[in-house]
Design a protein that fits this description.
With about 400 residues, this protein is mostly beta strands. The chain is built from two helices and 33 strands. A hairpin with a 2-residue loop joins strand 5 and strand 6. The longest helix has 15 residues. The chain is elongated.
């Protein structure tokens, strides 16, 4: 009896893990479930048309996925037509398809897996639909023919080395949905001249923009607390950079060989901790370091920061140059909320909140003489409140978020 039960169990496991493979119209398929198949590897070339369904042995199968290595190193493929039933490109699906020049990904796809288009050096354009939520590691690495790409607002993470060595990429739009730019994401994108990192990004990985020699300026978004090792190393045409008030540390050689750097503006009154040779080969006799008012002495005493010959204080919102009434803000310092006593400033006015870099982090129309503002999610640092009336009159105030 036990032998019979064991035989039944083995038979069940074997059948459950069994996949039927077949070929229709020179395309290879393998079943991945009931009445569903994926395209699997083969010797493909020319213009490829993938149907939404195939019939084999009188059974109709829906084509749902491109399997692992499905078209890997098929250098003879010139174009491919993808049906709207496809939901996923598995790892290295189009790896090394150097003859492919353009591709349109249908809106049914949600994941672009690791190495999906790596080495597609002939690819000049690609449309990523808003259904995609994740771009995998090295998904477009070494796509040297790509000149621009728009990442949809559905994507939250750009994977490790996702666009590394895309040497023809000149511009890229990162949506505000992205929170993580992983290690080496844009490593050696040598033609990249401009990039705007949205305020939603909280993590920028190691060497994320290494050797992006076309970049001339960059502003680190306000939620970033750490710049990791080699993040901007080798960006030898980088002229200026701004650090947010939340920045606490900068990793090894983060700005190594940034020989054109002439201006650094930091928004934190406490000098961020610096690891090994952060500014190695930066000419500190010519590069100007701008620090918030009241922090000059701290930077002049801090490791590596003190090596800059010229350190200047700046007023982030220009308050010291404005002769206007002061509004009452309490508690000050605070960790969660502040109450702002507006008085006459509440009449037809606009309230604007700046961080210590002078960047606008919040604004609203005033409605009452007293308002409460939730600042619990803001990084620690100094903040400036400006209230602008419709008669051009201004009121100002400051508070510290701990």
């Amino acid at each position: 009896m036990r032998k019979w039960m064991l035989f039944v169990m083995v038979l069940f496991i074997t059948l459950d893990g069994w996949a039927l493979s077949f070929t229709v119209d020179n395309i290879n398929y393998a079943t991945i479930g009931s009445n569903a198949v994926e395209v699997v590897s083969g010797d493909y070339s020319g213009a490829i048309i993938i149907p939404s369904s195939v019939v084999y042995s009188n059974v109709t199968y829906t084509v749902l996925e491109f399997g692992i290595d499905a078209f890997k190193n098929c250098t003879g493929i010139t174009s491919i037509e993808i049906p709207s039933t496809i939901r996923r490109f598995k790892s290295a699906a189009f790896y090394g398809c150097s003859g492919l020049t353009t591709i349109t990904i249908p809106s049914s796809v949600t994941i672009i897996s690791d190495f999906a288009f790596a080495g597609c050096s002939g690819l000049t354009s690609i449309t990523i639909p808003s259904s995609v939520t994740s771009i995998g590691s090295e998904a477009f690495a070494y796509c040297s023919g790509l000149t621009s790409i728009t990442i949809p607002s559905s994507v939250t993470r750009i994977g490790t080395a996702a666009f590394a060595y895309c040497s023809g990429l000149t511009s890229i739009t990162i949506p505000s949905s992205v929170t993580i730019i992983s290690d080496f994401a844009f490593d050696h994108c040598s033609a990249l001249t401009s990039i705007t990192i949205p305020p939603s990004v909280a993590i920028i990985g190691s060497a994320a923009f290494q050797a992006c020699i076309g970049l001339t300026s960059i502003a680190i978004p306000p939620l970033v607390s750490s710049i990791r090792d080699y993040t901007f190393s080798g960006c030898n045409n980088l002229i200026s950079i701004e650090f947010p008030p939340a920045l606490e540390s900068i990793g090894d050689y983060a700005f190594y060989n940034c020989i054109s750097l002439s201006s650094i503006k930091t928004g934190t009154t406490t000098p961020p901790g610096l690891s090994v040779d952060v500014f190695y080969l930066v000419d500190k006799t010519k590069c100007l370091l701008y620090v918030p008012i009241g922090s000059l002495s701290a930077y002049k005493e801090a490791d590596q920061w003190k090596d800059f010959l010229t350190i200047l204080e700046f007023d982030p919102a220009g308050i010291s140059k404005v002769n206007c009434p002061i509004i009452t803000i309490y508690p000050n310092p605070t960790q969660t909320h502040v109450t702002i006593e507006l008085g006459e400033a509440s009449i037809n006015a606009r309230l604007i909140l700046y961080n210590s870099l002078g960047q606008t982090v919040y604004e609203c129309q005033t409605a009452n003489e007293r308002m409460s503002l939730d600042v619990s999610r803001f990084p620690a640092g100094k903040y400036i409140v400006k209230v602008k009336g419709d008669n051009k009159k201004q009121w100002v105030g400051k508070f510290i978020k701990e």
